[in-house]
Amino acid sequence: MSKEDRYQTLIGIIKPYLPDDISADSINRDSHLINELNINSANLVDIVLDVEDAFDITLENEEMDDMQTVGDALNIIESKVN
Amino acid sequence: MRKRVVITGMGVCAPNGIDLQAFAGALETGKSGIRFYPELERLNFRCQIAGKPDIKKDYINNYFTSLEQRGLMASGLIYGVIAGVDAWRDAGLQPTEDETTDWESGVIFGTGILGIDKLREAIHLIDEGKVKRLGSTSVTQTMASGISAYLGGIIGAGNQVTTNSSACTTGTEGLFMAYERISSGKATRMLAGSCSDSGPYVWGGFDAMRILPRNFNNRPELASRPMSASASGFVPGSGAGALVLESLDSAISRNAKIYAEVLGGAVNCGGQRSGGSMTAPNKTAVQKCIREALRDSEIGAEEIDSINGHLTATAKDPVEIENWCKALEREKEDFPLINSFKSMVGHCLAAAGSIESVGAVLQLSNGLVYGNVNCEDPHPEILKWIHPSRIPQASVRKAPKIVAKASFGFGDVNACVIFKQYNS
């Protein structure tokens, strides 16, 4: 899986959690998951589980805390899969 | 001065019909929703038959978003949302806009235990040291009030939103609580109902108590036999029923259709004294509950046209008939027509009172009394009290004006509600 593939996979994971008034097209690496994409904070735990399943990795508590933006998530994934 | 309360919407998700129209048709024709479940056979249940709403996956799409459906395992929650949303729509009501809370609408939606399959999943994950894998909805699918919370959120309710729990009395009790809230002026409308999960983890305890029939596994539709001499236990069921209760003033002002009026009711407990126990009713308490419901409704016993009993198809059915006779001081040919919808849907436990109340009210709005199935051989102890003509074997086109509905539950708890035909 290339870096771009991983990005697209992550976007695919995030998409179902977006509220109706947020378009998937508006997602970019700088998007803040809660403040900008308006994802329900309770759903962040589900996103983490989906990420773990999709990339076959395990995220630690601190890593989950650091996962503020799409870019943060991608960096953590990159560090784990390599 | 009490406010008058009417029913302006109904929804149901029952083993023999998953919407109001299908349910009404099933009750009228005596269609059974009891089926054999191989899973129960595999798990060594003595009773391998049950009543379970037949919900297809794409039907759920009408009620839950794809996101909400991820990891959704609480069957009672699914039934409750289907029935509750249907009832609200049936009443001609809409969910509020995003920034609007409806302070005059509330929800009382009961259950016995919610989301037991989700709870099982959580227990397994926790025992494996994987608590983190529970996801975000483990709590909301397994908290008892998950059902009222879901429905309150869907419609935007801002009045009391709660879940009551009183075993098999739950649905009827909740309806009466909703009635009291509106009649006392504390709410304008209430979504009242109850739900019960399906499956072996709910039904297993009853199988262990040996109160379910075990000789009908190859004849499921004949198994649930309330008031019958050949009754051998209750068939476990599941599902949900929901009714929108509303002040008459509000119903008239928005020109809503009115199914029936709720005249009043009563709830009490036998204290597990005088023959009452955790599982058996104190006769004095049952009779007192029925009489108090009549007094609360300001009607005489002679005005009852039809009774929808609790009548589960256990050895307690004759005792229930005796209690009705003594409470109403009516017997033999003078006894009202009596029926038990459990003959078609089984005993839907916490959902029983609400599913059966929906059926009882349909009798008033559709002008008939539904028949009993599987009671061609009424119990001799019952026939000592009432004439066999009082137990209709098929639906009777005889419009009742007043119907009494009662439910009784473990813990020696009782509830009785009186419904009346509404004429504008």
Helix content of chain A: 40-55%
CATH class of the largest domain in chain B: Alpha Beta
Q: Let me know the number of strands of chain A.
A: 0
Bulk shape of chain A: globular
Proportion of helical residues of chain B: 25-40%
**What Rg of chain A is obtained from the alpha carbons, in whole angstroms?**
12 Å
Average pLDDT over all residues of chain B: 97
Q: Percent of residues of chain B in beta strands? A: 15-25%
Strand order in space, largest sheet of chain B? 5-4-6-7-1-8-12-11-9-10
Q: Would you tell me which CATH topology of the largest domain in chain B applies?
A: Peroxisomal Thiolase, Chain A, domain 1
What distance separates the N and C termini of chain A?
A: 11 Å
Total domains of chain A, how many?
Answer: 1
CATH superfamily of chain A: ACP-like
Structurally, the number of domains of chain B stands at 2
Describe the structure.
The complex is a heterodimer of chains A (82) and B (424). Chain A is mostly helical and 82 residues long. Chain A has helices at 3-14, 41-55, 61-66, 70-81. Chain A contains 4 helices and no strands. In chain B, helix 5 packs parallel to helix 8 (146-155) and helix 12 crosses helix 13 (317-328). Chain B is built from 16 helices and 12 strands. Chain B has 424 residues and is an alpha/beta fold. Chain B has helices at residues 20-29, 38-42, 57-60, 66-69, 75-90, 116-127, 138-142, 146-155, 170-183, 200-208, 248-253, 283-297, 317-328, 342-345, 352-366, 380-383; strands at residues 5-13, 34-36, 49-51, 105-111, 161-162, 189-196, 239-247, 260-269, 306-308, 337-339, 402-409, 413-420. Chain A binds chain B through residues 16-17, 42-43, 45-46, 49, and chain B through 66-67, 70-71, 132-133, 135-136.
Feature tags:
heterodimer; A: 82 residues; mainly alpha; Non-ribosomal Peptide Synthetase Peptidyl Carrier Protein, Chain A; B: 424 residues; alpha/beta; Peroxisomal Thiolase, Chain A, domain 1; 2 domains; two-stranded antiparallel sheet; 16 helices; globular
